[in-house]
Design a protein that fits this description.
The protein is α+β, with helices and mostly antiparallel strands. It is built from 9 helices and 5 strands.
Length: 279
């Protein structure tokens, strides 16, 4: 199929004049027959890809729906990760941390009967922890919550979480808001400079422009996800830009959300897509 498709594309781009006046009726009919085969192969591939995406997103939607129902029962609301915020729940879903990468603050909440202990534990849970093995940076650095340049300790976190306030909007919950250190954003941005430089150089895109796109799209939140399903640092839609880039790079025609949470993949695909738009 790939050979026929390449033949088809090269002939079409060359135009009818490429065949000259020597094309015989039989040869012309054979060519049309080949075009029909290529079209059928292409339709089969497209349908196959659509089916794969349908199955993939059906699974993801089911997981999302189950989580949404659980959260509504427990919290009487549903707060999920978004483009510039990351939300982490405890295993029992009775405590959560909301990291706002745009405003540079961490909000920790708990419904637990021992809220300070639960909130301290869930904050410690995300400090130094990577959401997956491919991430460049942890969800939070120990320095991100420190008032100095030193790493924050568990004892200091306990002191900060002692300033709990009670919020009774829909359910009674305990909450503390902690401002992130002044240099947290610089520290995080610097981590992605080598990856951005690598792919921006490869595809001839200005690195500073790529950094600006990431800043605007996700505020350097590698776990970013938009309400419409755009994923990662450069907010790539798996079934559109993701699939387009994967196909052009000769990779799988199935570009999953989990793949795009990998900063190296996300930045590469994002920069390549900028190249497509430019060219």
């Amino acid at each position: 199929m790939n050979i026929k498709l390449c033949l088809f594309l090269s002939l079409v781009s060359a135009g009818e004049s490429a065949f000259g006046s020597e094309v015989k009726p039989m040869e012309s009919n054979a060519f049309i027959s080949d075009l029909r085969l290529v079209a059928q192969d292409w339709n089969d591939l497209t349908q196959s890809t659509r089916n794969k995406y349908f199955i993939l997103f059906q699974k993801e939607n089911l997981e999302y729906e189950n989580l949404r129902l659980d959260l509504e029962k427990i919290w009487n609301d549903r707060i999920f990760s978004e483009k510039k915020t990351y939300v982490h729940y405890s295993k029992d879903k009775h405590s959560r941390v909301i990291i706002d990468y745009e405003q540079g603050e961490v909000t920790a909440e708990s419904l637990d009967s021992q809220p300070q202990k639960a909130i301290t534990e869930i904050i410690m849970d995300v400090i130094g922890t990577k959401q997956n093995a491919t991430e460049v940076a942890p969800i939070l650095y120990k320095e991100d919550l420190s008032k100095t340049t030193k790493s924050i300790t568990e004892g200091e976190i306990k002191k900060r979480t002692a300033q709990l306030k009670v919020v009774t909007s829909k359910v009674k919950k305990y909450q503390v808001v902690i401002k992130m250190s002044p240099d947290w954003r610089r520290r995080r941005e610097e981590l992605y400079v080598p990856i951005v430089t690598k792919w921006a150089t490869e595809y001839n895109i200005e690195p500073s422009f790529v950094m600006a796109v990431i800043r605007a799209e996700s505020a350097f939140n590698p776990n970013a996800i938009s309400p419409v399903g755009a994923v990662g640092l450069m907010q790539i839609m798996p079934q559109y830009a993701g699939r387009e880039v994967a196909t052009r790079l000769g990779q799988s025609d199935l570009c999953s959300s989990s793949l795009l949470y990998d900063p190296n993949v996300n930045i590469r695909y994002g920069v390549y897509y900028l190249k497509i738009l430019r060219d």
